DNA sequence: ACATATAGCCTCCGGCC
DNA sequence: GGCCGAAGGCTATATGT
């Protein structure tokens, strides 16, 4: 990640170091402040920073608001016997590389540190070193397997517009599958696709099986089987989301009064207590609760309007609306 | 691995107020 | 125009063979 752009980073560091005037310090501080929001724009939840991943994400809905964050804090070495302080050194670990991004790579350009072209003799030497470097970095079949699978996961996730956090979850799942010996006899692409499918659901950005099939190299049935297999063998319960997590987002899309959201929250709580929600889509529960709350608070709206804002059909809103009212 | 059953959700449509 | 309900189809999931 950061290893790929050493120049831009170094130049930025130079700029900061060279400009010791108050003016430039102010601009630097402003730049840092611009990423200091603490509330999620989607659901209003608390944003927390994960320094290890270089991300900031919402604790409620999982929305990643800031990736590839560059830590401009002190980069000092620790000589005291206080290992906790040595935490932030080097690039953040990533599950998306078979070696977790820990290794370095010999560049492809045949140039020295000053950008000058290498002599033919040196060039031949570097080519030999590159070959061996590559061999060591993916030395056994399992490493090569991981490299191929993570490449697939990354490619499919890009095609589906899934965030990096989802790719990381998918990569972790795949690694777990390998560690549990679930790979032999199954195709890499199938398990990789299933890992991504599961990760997308787990990180609240689900994609349908059809969407995944469209970007995967294996057919729909294989992905489906691999998914079941993973769920069964790894005992993965993909717990359905709480309807309340969708309330705030829908509510702000619809531009209702805050009171509507409070009432809707109460309605959902009662519905959940009576187990009306089980087996039902949390989306439809949230949509119906908003419709019911709007009616109870004399807010002007229609089923069609809520259907548009939530993507839940008006028929389903009607059904869940009845369910919710029955238990109040 | 494949077939079948079930439940949830969807679209489409017509009737009612 | 908005609400309601029925019919039929699609999909995900569970279960049986």
Automatic annotation (TrEMBL):
Entry's Gene Ontology BP terms: transcription preinitiation complex assembly
Assigned GO CC terms: transcription preinitiation complex
Domain TFIIB-type: 36-66
Positions of the UniProt region annotated as Disordered: 1-38
Alphabetical keyword list: Initiation factor, Metal-binding, Protein biosynthesis, Repeat, Transcription, Transcription regulation, Zinc, Zinc-finger
Alphabetized InterPro entries for the sequence: Cyclin-like_dom, Cyclin-like_sf, TFIIB, TFIIB_arc, TFIIB_CS, TFIIB_cyclin, Znf_TFIIB
Database matches in PROSITE patterns: TFIIB, ZF_TFIIB
Sequence repeat intervals: 151-234, 245-326
Binding, Zn(2+): 40, 43, 58, 61
Gene3D superfamilies assigned to the protein according to its UniProt record, in alphabetical order: 1.10.472.170, Cyclin-like
Sequence ranges of Basic and acidic residues compositional bias: 8-18, 27-36
Coiled-coil region: none
SMART domains, sorted: CYCLIN
MF (Gene Ontology): DNA-binding transcription factor activity; TBP-class protein binding; translation initiation factor activity; zinc ion binding
Family affiliation: Belongs to the TFIIB family.
General function of this protein: Stabilizes TBP binding to an archaeal box-A promoter. Also responsible for recruiting RNA polymerase II to the pre-initiation complex (DNA-TBP-TFIIB).
Protein name: Transcription initiation factor IIB
Source organism per UniProt: Halomarina oriensis
């Amino acid at each position: 990640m950061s290893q790929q752009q050493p120049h831009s980073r170094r130049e930025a560091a130079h700029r900061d170091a060279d400009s010791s005037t108050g003016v430039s310090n102010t601009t630097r501080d402003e730049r840092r402040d611009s990423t200091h929001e603490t509330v999620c724009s989607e659901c209003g939840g608390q944003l927390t920073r994960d320094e290890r991943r270089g991300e900031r994400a919402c604790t409620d809905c999982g929305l990643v608001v800031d990736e590839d964050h560059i830590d401009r804090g002190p980069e000092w070495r620790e000589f005291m016997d206080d290992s906790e302080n040595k935490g932030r050194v080097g690039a953040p670990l990533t599950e998306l590389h078979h070696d977790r991004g820990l290794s370095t790579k010999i560049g492809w350009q045949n140039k020295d540190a000053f950008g000058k072209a290498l002599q033919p003799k040196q060039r031949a030497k570097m080519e030999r070193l590159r070959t061996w470097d590559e061999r060591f970095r993916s030395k056994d079949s399992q490493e090569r397997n991981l490299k191929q699978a993570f490449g697939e996961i990354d490619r499919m996730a890009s095609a589906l517009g899934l965030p990096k956090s989802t790719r990381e979850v998918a990569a972790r799942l795949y690694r777990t599958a390998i560690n549990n010996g679930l790979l032999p006899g199954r195709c890499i692409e199938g398990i990789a696709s299933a890992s991504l499918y599961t990760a997308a659901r787990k990180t609240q950005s689900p994609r349908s099986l059809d969407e995944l099939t469209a970007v995967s190299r294996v057919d729909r049935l294989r992905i489906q089987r691999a998914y079941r297999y993973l769920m069964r063998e790894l005992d993965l319960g993909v717990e359905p989301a709480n309807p309340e997590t969708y309330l705030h987002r829908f509510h702000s899309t619809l531009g209702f009064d805050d009171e509507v959201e409070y009432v809707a929250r109460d309605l959902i709580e009662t519905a959940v207590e009576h187990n009306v929600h089980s087996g039902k889509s949390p989306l439809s529960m949230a949509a119906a609760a908003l419709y019911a709350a709007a009616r109870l608070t004399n807010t002007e709206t229609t089923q069609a309007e809520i259907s548009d804002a939530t993507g839940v059909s008006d028929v389903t809103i009607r059904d869940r609306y009845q369910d919710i009212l029955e238990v109040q």
